[in-house]
Amino acid sequence: MKQLKYAAVVLLCLPVAYELFGMCVNHISTDRQTKRMKANLTKTVSDAVIFSEHSETGNSSGTGNHVDCVSVVNFSSSKSLEELAACLTPYYTFDDWNCRLDKTDAGYVFYLNTRAPFADNIEGH
């Protein structure tokens, strides 16, 4: 009887453990994405100066049942928006929605939104 109770507790905890594991993997994926963005930016744009970064894991659109990895890097450069996009095109496909470069008063904003590895995680609900 004791073993049956133990098995029942383990079976009840497995879904929770799976969701927690998925959350950890999603957050690690977002952190790696942001680090990769910064590395590609500084490697391809010689005068890029990164002054802030932000990353978020969750449902970014507010619709649907999915988890996104969102990374935003703010930087300055003397290059034009077109030159920057040309430098980063080997690494990213700019589509004005999930991956884009925007000019601001302070410099540029590099935005990237990708699907998380565990896209149907509890964080997306």
Could you explain how this protein is built, in words?
This protein is of the alpha+beta class. The protein is built from two helices and four strands. The chain has helices spanning 2-44, 81-88; strands at residues 49-58, 68-76, 99-103, 108-115. A four-stranded antiparallel β-sheet has the order 1-2-4-3, covered by helices on one side. The radius of gyration is 19 Å and the shape is elongated. The two termini are 37 Å apart.
Separate helix tally:
2
Report the mean per-residue pLDDT as an integer: 92
Unreliable runs: none
**Biggest sheet details:** 4 strands, antiparallel
Sheet-strand content, in percent, reads 25-35%
Label the overall shape. elongated
Helical percent range?
Answer: 40-55%
Q: Which value, in Å, is the CA radius of gyration?
A: 19 Å
The ordered string of helix (H) and strand (E) elements is HEEHEE
Strand order of the largest sheet: 1-2-4-3
Tell me the total number of β-strands: 4
Distance between the termini: 37 Å
Quaternary structure annotation: single chain
Structural class given helices, strands, pairing?
alpha+beta
In summary, what is this structure?
This protein has 125 residues and is an alpha+beta fold.
What topology does this entry show?
Blueprint lengths: L1 H43 L4 E10 L9 E9 L4 H8 L10 E5 L4 E8 L10
Q: What are the salient characteristics of this protein?
A:
2 helices, alpha+beta, 125 residues, four-stranded antiparallel sheet, elongated
